[in-house]
Amino acid sequence: MDKLRNKDIYESANDALAKSIPFSNHFDLELIEVTADTIRIRMAFKEKLTRSNGSLHGGALMTLADISGVVCASINTSGHLAGTQQFSISFLRPGSGSYIDAISKTVHNGRTSLVVQTSLENDTGKCIAVITQTQAVRQN
To answer: Number of folded domains in the chain?
Structure first.
């Protein structure tokens, strides 16, 4: 039963990621881990997404975090997502390495809103940013 549930969760998460296309195609995002509690999406380091100092552009990092948060919210909501109400990011260090992972978890799942916390980690596991995102939820 757990394998079937995990497969259903993975398929739901993969569908939610696919809905971010064509925009997410620019970032080559890959679904790495899906559980009922955690979503992990990887973005490979691409030189075209860097700033002049060689670190990843903040906009690319925000895109990764936003898409990961929405995928996480979409598999955990009891209604349908109506849109982002709030998005806050704290950059802790430059984005560098061969990839960046976004790890998203739902911290509040209410009747009218859902809050997701996402951390961005580089390929050595160092946290480079922390994000809090609130999604409006409308009942079906």
So the answer is: 1
Burial 40-73 (b: 16+ CB within 10 A, else e): bbbbebeeebbeeeebbeeebbbbbbbbbbbbbb
Rounded Cα gap, residues 119 and 1, in angstroms: 30
Q: Sign of the CA dihedral 93, 94, 98, 100?
A: positive
**With bands split at pLDDT 50, 70 and 90, how would you rate the model's confidence at 49?**
confident
Q: Could you report the per-residue pLDDT of 81-98, keeping only the tens digit for each?
A: 888 899 999 999 999 889
Range of the domain at 117: 2-138
The mean of the pLDDT values for the chain is 87
The rounded distance, in Å, linking the Cα atoms of 41 and 10 is 12
**pTM confidence score:** 0.86
Cα–Cα distance, 20 to 136 (Å, whole number): 18
* Rounded Cα gap, residues 79 and 125, in angstroms: 34
